[in-house]
Input
Amino acid sequence: MIGYIILGLIVLVALWAMGTYNGLIKARNMVREAFSGIDVFLKKRFDLIPNLVETVKGYAKHEAETLEKVMQYRAEGGPRNVADAAAADAKVSQALVNLRAVSENYPDLKADTQYQQLMNDLSSMEGELANSRRYYNGATRSFNDKLMVFPSNLLAGMFNFKEEEYYEIDDNTQRAAPQVKF
Output
């Protein structure tokens, strides 16, 4: 009788360990999938930038420095990890703010239908990118919660699961609200 009880306990512990381990794997895969979503939208944004820059160049030839920065940040390549992605994203976002500021000085540019379409595409892309960032951070929070709560933290430690980084902006200038002047 005691043998059956011990066997039953071993089976229950094994089932718990399998379920917990599988849950950790699924949560980690959700984080990876979410990061790849950010990567997709960053790539789409990077692909849109040359068209935008070329359109602006036609109107603002002497604003070469701003345009070169936008292209330089685009050319730095894709993110290798969360910190690199956030840093590249922040640089490109700041360069695009500067590009928009340049365009404010050229009424003909703002009236250009191609420019308007590219800016609409960019605005839409920025919204999708923001949603991807939120999704990633939610998946990361869920995974990190699983790593930290008892008793799954015991199993996570045994199998060397590591806490994932949140997608955060380190540059405080990126956190500031943009100044709008008329």
Summary: The chain has one domain: 17-175. Helices lie at 2-59, 64-75, 82-104, 107-111, 113-148, 152-158, 172-175. Residues 174-182 have pLDDT under 50 and may be disordered. Residues 17-175 form a domain with the de novo design (two linked rop proteins) fold (CATH 1.20.1440.20).
